[in-house]
Design a protein that fits this description.
By secondary structure, the protein is of the alpha/beta class. It has helices at 31-40, 54-68, 72-76, 83-95, 97-105, 114-129, 135-148, 155-167, 169-176, 181-184, 189-199, 201-211, 228-237, 281-286, 303-312, 325-337, 384-387, 390-407, 430-439, 453-456, and strands at residues 218-221, 242-244, 252-255, 272-274, 293-296, 317-322, 344-347, 363-369, 411-421, 443-451, 461-468. It has 3 domains: 31-180, Orthogonal Bundle (N-utilizing Substance Protein B Homolog, Chain A), CATH 1.10.940.10; 218-274, Sun protein, domain 3 (Alpha-Beta Plaits, 2-Layer Sandwich), CATH 3.30.70.1170; 277-468, Rossmann fold (3-Layer(aba) Sandwich), CATH 3.40.50.150.
Length: 470
Amino acid sequence: MESSKVAARSADGRSSRRHPFRARIRLRPPLSRRILSRVRGRPPTLRTAGPEPPRVAAARILARWFETRAFPDRLLETVATGRPDVQDYVFAAVRRRETLDWILRGHLRERPTSPVRALLHLGLVQLLFMEKIPDHAAVYETVEAARALGVGWAARLINAVLRRAQANRNEILLRMRRMPPSVRLSHPPILIERWERELGALRAHRLCEWNNQPAQVCVRLRPGAPAVQEYLANLREHGLAAEPHPYAPERFIALAHGVRPTALPGFEAGLLYIQDPSTTIAPAMLDPRPGELVLDACAAPGGKTAMLAEAMGGRGRLLACDVHADRLARLRDNLHRLKLDHIEMVQADAAHWTPTPEQPAMFDAILLDVPCTNTGVIRRRPDVRWSFSLGRLQRLTRVQAALLDALAPRVRPGGRLVYSTCSLEPEENTRQVAAFLERHPEFTLAAERLLVPTDTSTDGAYAARLIRRG
């Protein structure tokens, strides 16, 4: 459900009569600022050294995101201190972008510059959707951040907009609930309409509400780790809160907000891996066995690779492939911490990969976890909703088809290929598999599964098991 603050009424029990959207402020910085912004034409620089107040860092990242559409999680890597708080602010504002812009359209005559827009979004999201943030901190600290970002000329305007929103909070939220779903639920119309067709309006809107909540951090307990209940008791002794995940309570725990997974007992020893329970369906469907030749064709960051290796018990041969050097380095680091150094790393585009003479040309089992639109993980990556388009969907489906076609001949007769995504879109899932089977009649569909987040309390995921006839 939508989370919001409820403002107190005035002393005589009546709410303000002033309409929250009637009076608009003309946004006009000093002439020197306008000239400089036109000449420079650059987004605010990201500071990479020295401590910075969380709201300043968050506003800086939001402004950069508005200008460049860079991934917010990548921009967060520049934060030196206080990253959890900064991430909370950034992700909350990214989630509610459409709602916040709608509010601003009622307050401002002109579209603000990116830094001012970022600060206004930051202040409004705290006042309206972050219940634990005191109003005085949301307003005062955001206004102070304007000076740190070099837009001190806008401090009075930001203060006025935030004070007005604070005073008229009830009216704003009531009117918001009467707005179209794209405003009320802060998702692009194209996604809402697609999900309404596939899931029905009620389930589609519940999915949007799910996406607008902060994602839980989940941890898998690996073989050799204590049982879940024993491990949870250990966490309680350390003052750390967690609970079994309802989808896979025998192997996964969900951490309370603010608990750092890297600080958990056993993390450095490789007994834990940070991943959502939805990631289990593809490796379980592949069902690799000791002694087999197995390929993980798009392996980074390594959670599924680790599960394949654990199932094989150190017997057989497992190759982990990824096209990007930085992702392969992350994969290598993760597997090293998990003490799975025997896995062979291959840097290659699986769609164009030619094995060396030392590498297998065919495999008993291949896991193909393809690049996709990521619409199943919007709760975890809130910016994904704003990057979705039919053009991008079509480009990705072509990439997926090319990967399937390239790897089909690498599956030995009688072997299996598991195709998986973290998407909810039928073009990337059932329709992609159906088209593959038409092109490759030597394969049959043995099983497929779609996880919808509101049904499973996990990320969204799809997997299909394809068997090559012997």
